[in-house]
Design brief:
The structure holds two protein chains of two kinds. Chain A is an alpha/beta fold. Chain A contains eleven helices and seven strands. Classes of the chains: A alpha/beta, B alpha+beta.
Chain lengths: 274, 360
């Protein structure tokens, strides 16, 4: 049996055990959790630049190539994201194979409007190490250079995903919130209760014009969608307008049964002499 | 007298109730008068008597002009009562205001409902100003080109709810005003047995197929069918966005695989030797290159199932052969140092991608 002190240490012990089991594999492949060793590559201009910055909380590494629609689309999306995360500790680098023509790469980057340094991967070594088979492809490393995200291109919703993944690595949102992007709410034509609301609104406008019968019709249509206090108020008001106060009071009573605080129903009852 | 009293009492009730009802604001400082649709420039007046009316807006049908206009006189209704068309519409259609709160909005819907709807009457359902496809394509010229010039058509454009099978023309939570992510929309239809394509070939029931094959191609996983398929119509078989050989055997040419190389690195296939680009190598000998670079080259589908498979690397169980579609097994086995394939295509051959030298 665990005493109180033992119980207090239990979470710590569990955390240590879990940490020991985490897949931290320096210089291994590019699977999630793998740590990529510190690495510098040459830029198109021959400068040496680190793939991952020590100061960054998220290092976005974008693998792309020239002459390909999706790479161009991805870089344009990146340009937007770069601006959005400009004030945050996010480091961006692009990576191209050394077989890519430098001038074409520069042109592609300029057209997309990205500001990131573009590194040249001699002999496709980094591609091979991270086991990347696609273009464009984005790997996001966290502050410990651990592979946190591997994201291929998506024709639909790419920018949303990228933004969410970066925010996830920055710990601004949870994995559940990222996962929600996989299942966005269905963009239906109708919203719940929408049809009833239309009838109620239309009925109220008809009441204003003293078109009692037509307003009553709209109240009935709204009630056809379900028992709504507001629809009973509309029915009561239309009936009162027609001089059918006993029926109006019954409608107001029903509204109050559904929503005891319904002020318009109380007023309606009072004005009908009850 | 009694009747008069009752009527007065009724009026009192209604006045009291109306004063308490949460009605939208009526601050019509300056009324926006639009006699034509903003973008399309067509009239929004009631249809002339010579035209067939299919649907009428309830207030127009009932002669209640004053619901929307300043006066209840059909001959001279005056301007609308609200400062903008949309505010006028939302007075009843407030649920549409909720829809318009979604992230992706159709610009004409933001500007004026009357860009697409005739507020009085129409021959079309939903009071659309014209037949849906022609209405949408009157602005979306690029899509119009795709739809009208496509050699391979997609029935989703012209059947059932037409454009709104997939798009919500008001607003949506997915880019391109899609009602759901592409995959969720596609399987709404492509989950039936017995569907056939334009050329009469049977089409896969994808819900069933994907439930039986758990290794999904990345675009399928990402619900991104439009990465490979041009949903409005196109010139490639199966509505593919780019070239891909429709036959089982084809001599290798990079441009024939533009579809695959839209994402995959062409060097995975084009380089005879590599130690980084693919795991399908024996030492540094690129086995993709070996399979494909033949006069009777094998196309990707010879070994890979494009949507989903039971094995890793999208390797299919077998390939259909002959008119009856007999399945010739590939018999792929994953090994610690690579893998092996056994009869039927060839004698059992293993490869080692952990070594730099072939045959190790």
């Amino acid at each position: 049996m665990l005493n109180c002190r033992s119980r207090a240490y239990l979470p710590l012990a569990l955390a240590l055990a879990t940490a020991a089991l985490l897949p931290v594999r320096a210089a291994a492949g590019g699977e999630l959790g793998d740590v990529i060793e510190s690495l510098e590559l040459k830029t198109l201009d021959g400068r040496k630049v680190a793939v991952a910055s020590k100061k960054a909380q998220a290092n976005v590494v974008v693998f792309f190539r020239t002459g390909q629609e999706f790479s161009a689309d991805a870089l344009k999306a990146m340009a937007e994201c770069e601006k959005e995360f400009a004030a945050k500790p996010v480091n961006w680098v692009g990576v191209v194979s050394d077989t890519e023509p430098a001038e074409a790469v520069k042109q592609l980057v300029a057209e997309a409007g990205v500001r990131m340094a573009v590194l040249v991967d001699a002999g496709d070594a980094l591609y091979g190490r991270l086991e990347i088979r696609l273009h464009p492809f984005t790997v996001i490393l966290d502050k410990d250079r651990r592979v946190a995200v591997r994201e291929p291109f998506h024709k639909i919703g790419y920018c949303d995903r990228l933004r969410a993944q970066i925010r996830f690595v920055l710990k601004e949102i949870s994995a559940e919130e990222v996962a929600k992007l996989e299942n966005p709410d269905k963009g239906t034509f109708r919203v719940p209760g929408g049809v009833a609301r239309r009838h109620l609104n239309y009925g109220r406008l008809l009441l204003e014009q003293k078109k009692w019968e037509k307003a009553l019709e709209q109240a009935e249509k709204a009630l056809g969608e379900g028992p709504l206090a507001a629809a009973y108020v509309l029915r009561g008001s239309a009936l009162a307008g027609l001089g059918r106060c006993p029926e109006a009071i019954a409608a107001f009573d029903e509204a109050l049964r559904l929503e005891p605080g319904e002020q318009a129903a109380k007023e309606g009852r009072r004005a009908c002499g009850k | 007298m009694n009747m008069r009293l009752t009527y007065l009492a009724g009026l009192l009730v209604v006045t009291a109730v109306l004063a308490l009802l949460p009605t939208p604001s009526r601050a019509a400082v300056k009324t926006e008068v639009r006699k034509t649709a903003l973008r399309r420039g067509v009239s929004v007046a009631p249809l002339p008597p010579s035209e067939k009316v299919g649907w009428s807006h309830a207030p127009f049908e009932g002669g209640d002009c004053g619901v929307c206009h300043e006066r209840n006189d059909p001959k001279s209704p005056g301007p609308i009562r609200h400062a903008s068309v949309n505010e006028q519409c939302y007075e009843c259609h407030e649920d549409t205001r909720d829809v318009m709160a979604r992230r992706y909005k159709h610009v004409p819907a933001v500007e004026a409902c009357t860009d697409c709807h005739n507020p009085h009457n129409s021959a079309e359902r939903g009071l659309l100003a014209a037949e849906m496809v022609s209405l949408c394509l009157s602005c979306h010229q690029g899509i119009k080109d795709q739809v009208t010039k496509a050699q391979v058509k997609h029935d989703a454009i012209t059947q059932d709810k037409k454009c709104s099978n997939c798009h919500n023309p008001h607003a949506a939570n997915v880019e391109k005003l899609l009602i759901q992510l592409p995959f969720d929309l596609c399987v709404n239809c492509h989950s039936k047995d017995g569907m056939t394509s334009d050329d009469g070939k049977p089409m896969t029931n994808y819900r069933k197929f994907l439930s039986e094959n758990k290794v999904w191609h990345a675009p399928v996983q990402a619900k991104d069918c439009s990465a490979c398929h041009r949903t409005h119509g196109g010139d490639n078989f199966r509505l593919l966005v780019s070239a891909y050989p429709s036959s089982f055997y084809a001599p290798y040419e990079t441009k024939n695989y533009a579809l695959c190389y839209g994402c995959h690195n062409s060097k995975v296939v084009s380089e005879p030797e590599t130690t980084t680009l693919t795991g399908f190598r024996d030492g540094s000998k690129n086995l993709h290159y070996v399979h494909v670079h033949k006069e009777r080259g094998r196309t990707c589908r010879a070994c890979h199932e494009v949507h989903a498979s039971k094995q890793d690397h999208h390797i299919r169980d077998g390939v259909p052969y002959g008119p009856k579609g007999w399945m010739l097994k590939i018999n792929y086995t994953k090994l610690p140092t690579g893998g092996s394939c056994a009869k039927t295509c060839h004698e059992t051959k293993a490869y080692n991608n952990k070594s730099l030298t072939a045959g190790q």
